[in-house]
Amino acid sequence: MNSSPTWRKSTRSTGGTSGECVELASLRGKIGIRDSKTPHTPHLTVGRQALATLLVQIKSGALDL
Predict the structure, then answer these.
(1) Residue 1: pLDDT above 90?
(2) Distant-in-sequence, close-in-space partners of 39: CB < 8 Å, separation ≥ 6
(3) Is residue 3 part of a domain?
(4) How many structural domains does the chain have?
(5) Is 21 in contact with 9 (CB distance < 8 Å)?
(6) CA 34, CA 9: separation in Å to the nearest integer?
(7) Of the N and C termini of the chain, which has fewer Cβ atoms inside 10 Å?
(8) DSSP assignment of 13-33, as one string?
(9) Could you report the per-residue pLDDT of 22-40, keeping only the tens digit for each?
(10) What are phi and psi of 40, to 5 degrees?
């Protein structure tokens, strides 16, 4: 069975014109991350713990984003 993943944007995404949105999808026990502006380009795939760690770092300001 070949079903397409369901990509989701954050509920905090305003849908504005800034274009700074990412989408996430559950991919066989991993998480896919892609740029919402270019959904047909390759995406990143990370484990759930790696995503959790990344989100903690982003929220704490530990990364220069």
Answers:
(1) no
(2) 7, 23
(3) no
(4) 1
(5) yes
(6) 10
(7) N
(8) ----SS---EEEEEETTEEEE
(9) 899 999 999 999 998 898 9
(10) -95, 0
